Amino acid sequence: MKPVAAKNREHRTLSSGLFSAGAHPGEIVQYSVYLEYTDDKKTSVPKWITMEADSDGGFQLRSDFENPHHAAQQIRRRSGIE
After folding, report:
1. Which residues, at least 6 apart from 62, have a Cβ–Cβ distance to it below 8 Å?
2. Distance from first CA to last CA of the chain, Å, rounded?
3. What are phi and psi of 42, to 5 degrees?
């Protein structure tokens, strides 16, 4: 796995956990990212992000967090900017 720059605490937690789990030779890690939107507009950013990871060696991690970019987008929309 190639490291990715972590921009928030939740992402850093998931990234460090994934790299720790992936450090064991032969261990397979499967991860998923789920995005929850409040509407179906093409330009929308997700409000909630869920990241999950599981390995065949027993590692498990789940992180849910609210996307701060969603609130900023809603303010721009109310102001007629977007």
Report:
1. 50, 51, 52, 53
2. 37
3. -65, -30
